[in-house]
Amino acid sequence: MSTSPANSGPQVVIQSTSDETITLKVNGEVRQIRNQLDELKALLQEKNQQNVQYADKIYNIGHIDQANFGFITGKKAFNETLTKQLIEALQTSSRPAQIFLERVATTPQWETQVRISDKAKEIIAYSFAGVIGIQLSKLMAIGKEDFSETKQRKYIEKCLQIAKRSVDLICFALISRMLDAKAETVSRLSSDLKMVLQKRFDEAFEPTLEEQFRLLNVLHAFFGDQANGLEAPMPELNSLGQALQQGSDLHLTFQNLQALNGKLDKGQYDLLDCFEAETQLAAFFKYFHFLANYRMASIKHIGYQHTRKEDPRYLIRYAALGIDSKANIDAEKINYSVDTVQTEAVLLYRGDNYRDNVNLFPFVVDYNALSFEQGSKICFYRSQAIADGNLEYLFLEDNSILSIEKKKDFPPPDADFNDLLISADNRKALNLNSVVNQFRGARTYLLGGELNFDDL
Predict the structure, then answer these.
(1) End-to-end alpha carbon distance in the chain
(2) What CA dihedral angle connects 198, 200, 204 and 210, to 10 degrees?
(3) CA atoms within 13 A on the CB side of 114
């Protein structure tokens, strides 16, 4: 969407809008028309004008269509379209969403009424898997901020982040399941899949949305080939075969989101692009709303209890990642059980039982669990540093970069672990080393060979 500077002085300026009318100043004269796109176009044609100013932005009438007209003139606010489409998509997997839609069935345009739509936003936030729900909640909060240039950028940026991290979550789940497969299955990786995986492991830059689509495409094809004997950790992916083909509607959505990313990079965005970002994110979740069927957990600590004449028990402390129905975020819980789980783990699981899970570590890590800090700091693998090959992770809270490097010559070959592990700093160093070791081990298992840092 291209706009001209506000001081270029169009002769048609929108002064105010209501549900029924638009009040304009035309060459200094106040005019009122119905709040309809065809009437605005007719007025501009009458005055031989192509541009209309609203607030501090100038829009070419050729860039305004029925889809974004309501957004420009105030009929639709931030998040209204997204909220309505998401809550409707959730009704197959969320009982609260079903109840909500039953209650508003006779309320037209409920998404425009804050007292009602806020309830829908809450349901969306606590329905989606872990960190995705939190990010959707942040998007809804941005939409409530006072209008500003900063708000526009933040809103588009957050829409893109949610799409990117959702695809990351799915791809990392698929790759993690491959790591649990037998070597015979892994040996069937095609050259095409190996090439795309190698790029994801070794790339020095965050992948584009187009590259993410390609990775998801080839991973889906591998799991869809019954000869490989490997089931996807998310059975809902089985129905996305056509959607993941080149040129599909979903592929077009990825391309549209990537185009928005280009505008953001160049600083060439405006209010209409906010509506475009919202519309494309809604189109994205048309295919990936099944993420509401999943939960995430970060394993914090595992203790052991075994008393005389009693069966042994594990005391598992974990963070239930995301927002729950009582608005708790990353609530810490305890599970007292005869079974245990992996110690270094961020789990993705369906339903309420985290035991049937896929472990996303080392592609998704809880840095606070590794460093014995309070709370959760969930980070997604992004890329490798050019200078030293350190692993770079995105901290989802603020999209900052966290670099994890392996401490060299640690632990010493002759180390006494009984003494070494007394120090919390040493235990943290071992945990961070484990991230790098498991990442490189995953790459070797799937692709063979070692990464040559001289080639970076």
Answers:
(1) 37
(2) 120
(3) 6
